[in-house]
């Protein structure tokens, strides 16, 4: 039994044409038993950036609150919103602070910078950043998500097409993982607006 | 001071105890295979890389073997076990042919393989088998196995190191899961394209998959083999 597989969960983010998408499942379990089907793992950091936190649920909640605090403090001190790339480094430092007793999460960050250029990245549980140009995956379903995204993703997808691609990637991947699923939430971030949709999937 | 349990003896000097030296009989040679059943055809595809840990033993060692004009078997896992198992199947099929005057049908081979695998229940063949072929009605058939012989007929399956990457993609593209449109039966060319896409994606993300891809296409006309390059890194 691995501690990263205690609660289960899946998060994926993809880059499109002048947009990004981030999606997560909604299951919270205690090993084989499902406790909640409304446990979302993506959180809004700034008006144009989202952070996804799959892994041990207690750390998901704690880090969501820690990052909310740090982003708010940044906004107060700098009098501007934090850029996604800077947030990535903030997340990385926060995780590495606990190098020898880590937070059991592997975050995913997706957002648009001040020039509305898409940005995604993921980190491991001790803060190593993976700057990807196409997509990033994390959670117990990462192998399945790698297979789906590698096959379905293509560059320069419009927001509506990106929504379909990320939804199909997540839904089919979590259907092959018993620790993830029970619904999904997909967020598309464009320069004009952010659209969040809840998907109904297999409820098992 | 640490606690002791009944029967435990703690001493303050070195002791000599017997150490069991073991030989691990299993080796994982990696690789990925898949099989898809169509209306009147069957595809069995496997990559050809053979690895051991982080090393590559060979870039071209085929994992699939043609058993008859209607049946192809593909095996991943420990190559030594796969070789022996293939030999046993082929020899049994030859005995059957001499005894009954006809080639074994796909369903018969399927059941026989299950029995062969279970006969070594307590020292298993470390092989992930997929049997693909045409059934007696000429329809595509895929039988999947676990290492001790549990088997089931399915419409499509992948096995091996990148199986967790490819299987959800097959669910989506072959069985149209999570899609509202239930499209018509897929043609042979569509299925071959899906197979090639699956392997190129798997090669990107799995270190044990790559080099070459061999696709066996089984139709009523016989078995045709296609070979294509995969990334060699």
UniProtKB/TrEMBL annotation, chain A:
Biological processes annotated in GO: proteasome-mediated ubiquitin-dependent protein catabolic process
Main location, first listed in the record: cytoplasm
Keywords, comma-separated and alphabetical: Cytoplasm, Nucleus, Proteasome
Signal peptide region: none
Keyword Nucleus annotated: yes
Record keyword Ligase present: no
SUPFAM superfamilies linked to this entry: N-terminal nucleophile aminohydrolases (Ntn hydrolases)
GO cellular component: cytoplasm; nucleus; proteasome core complex, beta-subunit complex
Gene3D superfamilies according to UniProt: Glutamine Phosphoribosylpyrophosphate, subunit 1, domain 1
A Pfam short name: Proteasome
Compartments where found: Cytoplasm; Nucleus
Subunit comment: Component of the proteasome complex.
Record function comment: Component of the proteasome, a multicatalytic proteinase complex which is characterized by its ability to cleave peptides with Arg, Phe, Tyr, Leu, and Glu adjacent to the leaving group at neutral or slightly basic pH. The proteasome has an ATP-dependent proteolytic activity.
Stated family: Belongs to the peptidase T1B family.
The protein, known as: Proteasome subunit beta
Species: Entomortierella parvispora
From TrEMBL, chain B:
Gene Ontology biological process terms in this record: proteolysis involved in protein catabolic process
A single cellular component GO annotation: nucleus
Subcellular location: Cytoplasm; Nucleus
Pfam families in UniProt: Proteasome
Superkingdom classification of source: Eukaryota
Entry keywords, A to Z: Cytoplasm, Nucleus, Proteasome
InterPro entries given in the database record: Ntn_hydrolases_N (IPR029055), Proteasome_bsu_CS (IPR016050), Proteasome_sua/b (IPR001353), Proteasome_suB-type (IPR023333)
Family in the record: Belongs to the peptidase T1B family.
Subunit structure: The 26S proteasome consists of a 20S proteasome core and two 19S regulatory subunits. The 20S proteasome core is composed of 28 subunits that are arranged in four stacked rings, resulting in a barrel-shaped structure. The two end rings are each formed by seven alpha subunits, and the two central rings are each formed by seven beta subunits. The catalytic chamber with the active sites is on the inside of the barrel.
Record PANTHER family: METALLOPROTEASE TLDD, PROTEASOME SUBUNIT BETA TYPE-1
Function: Component of the proteasome, a multicatalytic proteinase complex which is characterized by its ability to cleave peptides with Arg, Phe, Tyr, Leu, and Glu adjacent to the leaving group at neutral or slightly basic pH. The proteasome has an ATP-dependent proteolytic activity.
Name the UniProt record assigns to this protein: Proteasome subunit beta
Annotated organism of origin: Entomortierella parvispora
């Amino acid at each position: 039994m691995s501690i990263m597989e205690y609660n289960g969960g899946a998060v994926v983010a993809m880059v499109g044409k002048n947009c990004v998408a981030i999606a997560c499942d909604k299951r919270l379990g205690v090993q084989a038993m499902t406790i909640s089907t409304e446990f979302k793992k993506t959180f809004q950091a700034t008006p144009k950036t989202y952070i996804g936190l799959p892994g041990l649920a207690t750390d998901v909640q704690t880090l969501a609150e820690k990052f909310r605090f740090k982003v708010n403090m940044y906004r107060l001190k700098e009098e501007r919103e934090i850029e996604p790339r800077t947030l990535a480094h903030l997340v990385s430092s926060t995780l590495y602070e606990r190098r020898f007793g880590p937070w059991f999460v592997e975050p995913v960050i997706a957002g648009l910078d001040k020039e509305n250029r898409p940005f995604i990245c993921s980190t491991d549980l001790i803060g190593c950043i993976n700057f990807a140009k196409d997509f990033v995956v994390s959670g117990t379903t990462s192998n399945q998500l790698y297979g789906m995204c590698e096959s379905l993703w293509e560059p320069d997808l419009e927001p509506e097409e990106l929504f379909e691609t990320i939804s199909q990637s997540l839904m089919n991947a979590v259907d092959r993982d018993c620790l993830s699923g029970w619904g999904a939430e997909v967020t598309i971030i464009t320069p004009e607006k952010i659209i969040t949709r809840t998907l109904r999937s297999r409820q098992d | 001071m640490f606690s002791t349990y009944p029967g435990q003896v703690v001493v303050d000097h070195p002791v000599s105890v017997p150490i069991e030296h073991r030989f691990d009989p299993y080796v994982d040679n990696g690789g990925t295979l898949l099989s898809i059943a169509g209306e009147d055809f069957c595809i069995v595809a496997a990559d050809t890389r053979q690895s051991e840990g982080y090393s590559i033993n060979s870039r071209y060692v085929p994992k699939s073997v043609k058993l008859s004009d209607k049946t192809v078997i593909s095996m991943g896992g420990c190559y030594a076990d796969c070789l022996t198992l293939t030999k046993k199947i082929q020899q049994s099929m030859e005995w059957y042919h001499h005894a009954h005057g006809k080639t074994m049908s796909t369903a018969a081979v399927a059941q026989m393989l299950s029995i062969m695998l279970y006969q070594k229940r307590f020292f298993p063949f470390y092989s992930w088998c997929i049997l693909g072929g045409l059934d007696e009605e000429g329809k595509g058939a895929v039988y999947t196995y676990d290492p001790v012989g549990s088997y089931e007929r399915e419409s499509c399956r992948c096995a091996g190191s990148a199986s967790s990457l490819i299987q959800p993609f097959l669910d989506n593209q072959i069985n149209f899961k999570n899609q509202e449109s239930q499209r018509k039966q897929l043609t042979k060319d569509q299925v071959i394209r899906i197979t090639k896409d699956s392997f190129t994606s798997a090669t990107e993300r799995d270190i044990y998959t790559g080099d070459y891809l061999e696709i066996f296409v089984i139709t009523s006309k016989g078995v045709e083999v296609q070979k294509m390059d995969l990334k060699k890194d």
